[in-house]
Every structure is written in structure tokens, then in C-alpha cells.
Model the fold of this input.
Amino acid sequence: MYLLFSTITVVTLFLLGSMLLGLNAHGHASPISYIPKPNEVINLGNGNPPPNTVAITFTETPEPRASSINVVNSNNERIDNDDLKVSEADKSISISLDQAKLIPGIYTADWLVLSTDDGHITKGTYVFTVEGESNGLSNSPNQSDGLMQSPQLSGSQQSANDNTWGYSKNITTDEGIDLKFEINPYVTGQNTFNLSAFYTNGSAVENIRNVFLEFNNPSKDLGPIVDTMNKTSVGNYSSTGAFLSQTGSWEVKITVQRIGEYDINQEFDLDILDR
Ligand SMILES: [Cu+2]
Done:
């Protein structure tokens, strides 16, 4: 009896362990490809057609009744045709876009899928940009006609040059690391983000594995939009993208992943004005 009991216990524990390992080992329905791509800039001026769908392919099959894509313009107006299609064979979901509404601008795609394989929900947000001179509504960063007089500059904001407003924030962590974070220009649309990490004695933080940015705009139900910054030199990271796709209050989260030490996490809010 005792032997039988322990055999059953061992088998049960083994099965339980395998299930737990199995659940941990796979990544739910994770996106593996996107059309358009995250952060893609589609230039109509080069003869490219505007995108007619947003399509995302996953590692697992999405459940049609519990999956969605929403595509909004920078005024938070939906520009898709609310005709979600799920291809179980391709493990993909897609939605068509209203071509009449696809003027040059920044578009945010918000998706949610329920995996039929394990019942887990995953969701995410990404941004793409349509550029073109055809109708004078371009949001191209090179155009200056959308930029107005100086907004009320507060503490950490500063004027970067005649055409753009920059944002700069300095944070010193408890362990004596100075983080300097900059956004240029400091308006909606394509921005350059820079982060430097130096010890207060002036030497660069060398053991950085990755720097991630995460953006959320809860009042407009956007995000998390995540980005991995590129290393430009020791201690210096940069990335470009239209992550701040709409005006309003955004939560920014910076994660500096280090080799052999804890992550550095910083969170703060931004108020983004229109370009
Ligand atoms: Cu899962």
C-alpha cells in the first residue's frame, strides 16, 4: 500500500511538474509577424499604396470569438472596417482598413487574442506611420507648419531648436547611476529617444544587456507599446519611433537590464502635445 501510494504520488508529481514546465515553456499566442510592421513608415509619395489590412500571425491559433484588432488614428478614431478575420490554418488575424480614412498620419493598432491551444490571453499595441504630400495633411517630422508657438515650458522641458521642442529628464538612482532620458521633438509622431547611463563618477555603465521602453496611455486605452533601444556607444542608447502616437498623458517605463545585477526601473508621466 505504501509503495503503491508513493508510486502514484511520484507519477502525479511528475505529471504536475510537466504541466507546469509546459505552461512555462511556451509563450502563449505570441505575435511572430505583423503587416504593416511595428514602427513601419509607409511613404505614399514613393508610389506605395496605403496599407489595406492589419494582419498579425501568432505562435498559437487565435480563438475567433475572443480576439480583436482595433486600428485608430491620432484622434483616437477607429479607421478599420470592424471585419476581423481569423485564419486558423495560418494562426493569424486580420482586419481591413477604410482607405478613405488612411490619410498621412500615425496609426495605432491594438490587438488581443485568446489562444485556443491553452486559453491564455495576450495583447499588445504597435504603431505605424503613413507619410505623403498628396493632401497637405502630412505629419512628416520635416514639416514645420504644424508647429506653433512655444507651449508652456515646465521644469524638464526645453527648446531644442527653432522647429522642435525637446524633453529631457535626469534621474539619479539609489546606487549612484545617472540616467539621462531625452525625447526629440517633444510632440506626437516620430521621435528620437536617447538614454545614457553613467555612474556619478563619470564612467559609463558597461554591463547593460538591454534597454527597454514601454509606453501606456490609459485614458485612450493605448499600450503597452514596447521598444528595445539600440546601443550607440558604451552607456548610450537610442531609438526612433512614433510610440507617442496621440496627445495626452503617457506613462513611460524605462527598464535597464544588466548582466549580474538587478534591473534599473524608472517610471514617470509625460504630457504630449500635438505636432
Ligand atoms: Cu499560454
User: Anything to note?
Assistant: The pocket of copper (II) ion is lined by residues 26, 28, 115, 118, 120 (CB under 6 Å). The chain has one helix and 18 strands. Residues 157-272 form a domain with the Immunoglobulin-like fold (CATH 2.60.40.1930). The CA atoms of residues 187 and 275 lie 5 Å apart.
